[in-house]
Design brief:
- It contains five helices and seven strands, in the order βαααβββαβαββ.
- It has helices at 10-17, 20-23, 34-45, 95-109, 125-134; strands at residues 2-4, 51-56, 63-73, 78-85, 115-121, 137-148, 151-161.
- The protein has a seven-stranded mixed sheet with strand order 1-2-3-4-5-7-6, sandwiched between helices.
- Helix 4 crosses helix 5.
Amino acid sequence: MLRPITLDDTDLIVKWRNNPSVVQNFIFREKFTRQMHENWIHNKVETGQVIQYIVEEKKTERPIGSVYFRDVNELYNSAEFGIFIGEDDARGKGYGKEITSLFVRFGFETLGLHRIQLRLVKGNAAAARTYTSVGFQKEGEFRDMVKLGDEYRTVLFMSILDTDSRD
């Protein structure tokens, strides 16, 4: 299930975004604080630049992660997709694929998006498989685009269009 994110979710988001198993898949890896999340809500979510939801397990309604569109551009009908499962025991259960598929459909059918793009650090094979299975196509790689710790990492770019066939 999905529900809109609120300021009341701040403690959860801070906990999840500082979880090492989540951090390793983000390009932004600085320690995440309450203030950063509150600024995000006020400056991005409340202004419509970001559309973000909390993901809950259907049976228990336990929050397990978040999904969002950022950099929503109404002129080009495009946005960047992001997702993370913050609870370690909720990974590997197919939630990522289900949520990605639902949110992409929401983006096209409800928000009227034409293009949804994403970035991921090369080597995150599970995420790449999920995105490909939903219909995202690899557009390219930017070699050594980011420096994470002491290591340069390649970033993959993928997209899906409302005109692409998908599951």
